Amino acid sequence: MTQERHISVWNNCLNFIRQNIEPKQFNLWFGPIKPVSLVESTLTVEVPSEFFREYLEGAYLDILKAALKKELGVSARLVYLVTPVRKQSSMMYPAAHGNPPVNKTISVETFSRGGNPGHLVFPGIPRVQVNPQLNPVYCFENLIVGECNRMGFTAGESISNAPGKTAFNPLFLFGGPGLGKTHIAQAIGIAIKKMYPELVVLYVPANRFKTQYMDAVNVRNKLTDFLAFYMKMDVLIMDDIQDLMGQSTQNAFFNIFNHLHQSGKQLIFTSDRPPVELENFEERLLSRLKWGLSVELQKPDFTTRLNMLKARAFREGVQLSEDVLHFLATRIKSNFRELEGALISLIANATLAHKEITIELAEQITEKIVGEQQNDVTIDKVQKVVCDYFNITRDELVSKTRKRQIVQARQIAMYMSRNLINCSLSTIGAEIGGKDHATVLHACTTVNDLMTTDKSFRQYVSDIEKMLVPVRR
């Protein structure tokens, strides 16, 4: 191999690519790429960032494969050397994140060879290839563990080592959006597939399950095939189970749940609320969702947010200054998803505009994405406003006194916390004198009732809400 060989090969690839895409796109996405080396049939090229690499593969993977195959044959392989926006030592990235988990083919007894097969349901076909629907990016290695998710992580590791054989069956993960429920749930599935490749794992959002069920109901004998398919799972992960609405759908799922649980199979669920707050669910299904372990994921603290930013920046091949990292971690407090979105937007803007990542650029990006977040409503702020309005102390608010004024103030604080803050009833109760979720639910119901019958009480609630709305923004 000579130095000119890798340059010649890449130039030939560029000539092929140039003929198949628009000039503007070619200059934008292929102009910055530099050939580095060629070892046998593996070509290494340098790209500006991991974001650049991901976009390149997402938009131009087919044409890259065609160009490399034309030049180097069927064994051609492309490796990326990522040069960050700010200069740092280079990092080597393979052409893909890794192979997604693959399930074995399973046998499913079917009862009809007619009809049109739907997604995941194949009437008349005795053996079915099951795609586990797991994203390899959502692995434990990419999960940042802090106090906000440590219990979920620990339980997930235990389940991964012995699926279906721990006390954590089912595992019920709940919390607000962007807190990592799907990540932990899929990480468990990925870890199980690594340790027990013979097990059949399936991740399915509740809405997709419901759609599959409705499709099965409308075709003769297809419902039996649908149930038979799901009862073959060794690990079933259902995301956003709060969307599993409808008595008939819940009845079908109830039968699947019973069969899998009694057979020692692992069940994992995620939800935006705890089981006790799931509305329009059959009581018998709710009781089963409470059988195992319920874990609430909290908002990440500053240290966890900072660690998450550092890890994701490393994965993207970008070095950010401590000042920028601290700014992002301080500015965005709500969840991992918004934090990650801000970081990716920052990297994308810096890459495409050829700018250095500075606090000034970070301010511009975060302002567009999340606006002012330092004024978010918290339980503490709700309690402070309520105490100030009724001229009482916080000690009085969280006490056990049954004085009418204190009781009403306490109930309004619970009501406001539930309506304005995305947290569970149990969390609200714990912050207002150690009350249980039933007490909080009763308080919310009482406030709703009084607002319709008591004009003065309705004014109290309206005044307090007006004091909180500017804070909420």
SSE arrangement:
Blueprint: H1 3-18, H2 23-29, E1 34-39, E2 42-47, H3 50-72, E3 77-82, E4 91-93, E5 105-107, E6 127-129, H4 150-161, E7 171-174, H5 181-195, E8 201-205, H6 206-217, H7 222-230, E9 235-239, H8 247-262, E10 266-271, H9 283-289, E11 293-296, H10 302-316, H11 322-331, H12 336-352, H13 359-369, H14 379-390, H15 394-397, H16 404-420, H17 425-430, H18 437-453, H19 455-472
Parallel strand pairs: 2-3, 7-10, 7-11, 8-9, 9-10
Antiparallel strand pairs: 1-2, 3-4, 5-6
User: Mean pLDDT, nearest integer?
Assistant: 82
Helix content: 40-55%
Distance between the termini: 62 Å
Low-confidence stretches: 85-97, 112-125
What is the string of helix and strand elements?
Answer: HHEEHEEEEHEHEHHEHEHEHHHHHHHHHH
Approximately how much beta-strand content do the residues carry? 5-15%
Cα-based radius of gyration, to the nearest Å? 27 Å
The class by helix and strand makeup works out as alpha/beta
Coarse shape: globular
Total beta-strand segments: 11
Lateral strand order in the biggest sheet: 8-9-10-7-11
Summarize the biggest pleated sheet. 5 strands, parallel
Annotation field: number of helices: 19
Task: Outline the structure in words.
Strand 9 (235-239), helix 8 (247-262) and strand 10 (266-271) form a beta-alpha-beta unit. The radius of gyration is 27 Å and the shape is globular. The protein is of the alpha/beta class. It is built from 19 helices and eleven strands. A five-stranded parallel sheet has the order 8-9-10-7-11, with helices on both faces. It has a four-stranded mixed sheet with strand order 1-2-3-4. A two-stranded antiparallel sheet has the order 5-6.
